Amino acid sequence: MSKISELSLTKIVNGIKKKDFSSEEVTKSFIDSSKKSKKLNTYITECFDEALKFSKNFDKKKDYKGLLSGVPIAVKDLFCTKNVKTTAGSKILHNFIPTYESTVTNNLWSQGAFLLGKLNCDEFAMGSSNETSFFGNVKNPYGEKLVPGGSSGGSASALAAGLTPATIGTDTGGSIRQPASFTGTVGLKPTYGRCSRWGIVAFASSLDQAGPMTNNVEDSALLLQAMSGYDSKDSTSVDKKVENYSSNLTEKIKGLKIGIPKEYRVDKMPTEIDDLWKKGIEYLKDAGAIIKNISLEHTMYALPAYYIVAPAEASSNLARYDGVKYGHRARGKNLIEMYENTRSEGFGNEVKRRILIGTYVLSSGYYDAYYLKAQKVRQLIKNDFDKAFKDVDAILTPSTPSSAFKIGDKSDDPVSMYLNDIFTVPVNLSGLPAISVPAGYDKNNLPLGLQLIGKAFDEQTILNLSLAIEKRANFKKNYKVWWS
Amino acid sequence: MSIDKDTVKHISKLARISLDENKVESLSKDLTSIMKFIESLNELNTDKTTPLTSIINASLKSRKDEVKDGKIRNQILKNSPEKNDEFFVVPKVIE
Description:
The complex is a heterodimer.
Chain A: H1 9-17, H2 23-35, E1 43-46, H3 48-61, E2 72-76, H4 103-110, E3 114-119, H5 153-160, E4 167-170, H6 177-183, E5 186-189, E6 210-214, H7 217-227, E7 257-261, H8 271-286, E8 290-294, H9 302-317, H10 335-346, H11 349-362, H12 368-388, E9 394-398, H13 414-418, H14 425-430, E10 434-441, E11 447-454, H15 459-473
Parallel strand pairs in A: 2-3, 7-8, 7-9
Antiparallel strand pairs in A: 1-3, 4-6, 5-6, 5-10, 9-11, 10-11
Helix pairs in contact in A: 2-3, 5-6, 7-15, 9-11, 9-12
Chain B: H1 5-14, H2 21-38, H3 73-77
């Protein structure tokens, strides 16, 4: 039998239920691989002792009723966890210990899972490479010099390296799907409102959504089911029945109509990304789908609109970090100076840039020109999708315009970093669900993902289509372990 | 629109972030390039478009206005960098 830490989440859940191995054996296996992974820098906080204790108790109690019974899971350090340090990758929260648990992590624990640790991420989830974290770069298992993507970079890297059986991330502009694509894993951003945002450190509240990051599509369905649901503590979560995504999962997708948007064929996109997209089209045709060319004509305006809306909301959300209630505090001669010094010391460069952009576009006299304009453009982008979904059931695009890039390559030029999210951002602006599924490699043997975008609350269809691609692409991890 | 050094200083003040003088120049350059990127939106005529206010077609639920928790002062104060038994402590505000 292969090492437990190389098994999928579904196999681990079933193995524990069938008593092929105990929760303690599973937990030890992941702790063991995690301890050897320091060079990847995926963990901000390790909860190994507590996890081991929990697993031993679990094995005594033998309660297998949950969807995730007996499974240790490490999560992005953006989810507040009761009595466990939660930093959001920022100096300003370096010592913050929540006295409450986020709804989404609580949902996982209600299904029998328990916390293995907190994973590195870009500071306040602002970044596409995990380079903005106060706790240092995360490295990609596919190469010591490569970024894992971001902002859920620690999650993606830990998952791909077999340090956790599955994980959860958050996605504001691509922060689950882009790192999934860079690390050869499956990342799903659910429909806005499918999962509760309560207890997640807020970045841009009209865009943020938590979602599953897993080794395969079957695991994605299972974890989505476990974490979703209405929550009275988040008024934007939607009271809609959570489907049984796992048992409804099927690769029988015959007759489904798939849209191919011509606007996603961007300048300077490597031919191998275009080739991968064509391959994806062939896979879906082979499974019986009908391919239709469509147009999403305002696609090119999505990123500029995003870089008004997201910083505007961020500047407002991050106003709470004032050195009074929690987190880092600097000295100052008076109250205002204490605020200013605290925020200057506590926030990193990218977060400051975004707060300043947000403050600028919301400042007196500029609101109409920027924020209102962006919300109008957002409506146009949403209209494009609404129109397209009258004719098709889902949309297929590449997940990212490139494979994983080198650490330091884009960190000097904010705009070139932002362009990474060109294919993922329109989905957040429109609130739609989307998934990135690994579908092949580029010439340097780096993973590439394809993105499927679905109708609101139709996660099932994009999961099914991803399964059809997964079966045909036959993607296998092919990195050599260099970190242990 | 370019964001000159005075504007950088002004918005930093609004955002309550103190800036080192030597960082103002590079921030002005970064913010200007971001604003240039954003301004491609001006190509679009949106005179007849209504701005988006909600992305999901679901009406907000109303709930009873009732107290569900409380008596958690110690929890709320727990993470404060400076406090006494009952209050957050801040530098003197009133002379």
